[in-house]
Amino acid sequence: MGNPARPLRADAERSVRTILEAAERVLAKDPGASMEQIATAAGVARTTVHRRFANRQVLIEALALSAARQLADAVEDGRPDTAPPLVAMHRITANVLQVKSAWAFALELPGDADSAATLLHQDIARRCVAVLKRAQDDNLIDSAADLEWVRRVYYALLGETLRGSTEDDPDTLAARIIQTLLHGAGPFGGRG
Question: Matching PANTHER family, A to Z (predicted)?
Answer without folding.
Answer: HTH-TYPE TRANSCRIPTIONAL REGULATOR BETI, HTH-TYPE TRANSCRIPTIONAL REGULATOR RUTR
